[in-house]
Amino acid sequence: MAWIYLLVAGILEIVWAFAMKQSHGFTRLVPTVVMLVSMVGSFGLLALSMRVLPLGTAYMIWTGIGAVGAFLVGVTLLGEAINPMRIAAALLVVSGLVLMKLSASS
Questions:
Q1: How many domains does the structure of the chain reveal?
Q2: Average model confidence (pLDDT) for the chain?
Q3: pTM for the model
Q4: Rg of the chain taking only CA atoms, in angstroms
Q5: pLDDT tens, 50-99?
Q6: Quick one: CA torsion of 45, 46, 51, 54, rounded to 10 degrees?
Q7: Which pLDDT value is given to residue 90?
Q8: CA geometry: angle at 80 spanning 41 and 70, to 5°?
C-alpha cells in the first residue's frame, strides 16, 4: 500500500506544480486553491508512505515522479521546448527511479 500512496503523492505533486504555474504568482484563486489542496494531499500521502519505505527511496521517487511528470505536462500542455538533451535528462531520471524501486527492500 505504501507504493500506491507514493505513486498518488507523486501524481499530486505534478498537479500542484501545474496549478502553481497556472496561478500566475498566486493571483488566480482557483489554481491557487487547487495547488494548496493537492500540495497537502501530496505531502500527506508521502508521509504515509514513509511509515514503511525508507526516507531516501520515498523522497527520491516522489520528487522524480514530480520532476518527470512536470516536464511532460510542460511539453504537452504548455508547449515547452523539447529536444534530445531534455529527453535524455528525463530518461536518466526515470532510469534512476527504476533502479531505486528495484533496490528497495519493501
A1: 1
A2: 95
A3: 0.88
A4: 15
A5: 999 999 999 999 999 999 999 999 999 999 999 999 999 999 999 998 89
A6: 160
A7: 94
A8: 20
Nearest CA to 65 among 18, 105, 6, 24?
6
Cell triple for 27: 493571483
Give the Cα-Cα-Cα angle 5, 77, 40 (nearest 5 degrees).
30
Cell readout for 80 is 515547452
Q: What sign does the dihedral 58-61-64-69 (CA atoms) show?
A: negative
Residue with cell string 496549478: 19
Residue 51 lies in domain: 2-103
Nearest to 68 by CA among 43, 47, 89, 42: 89
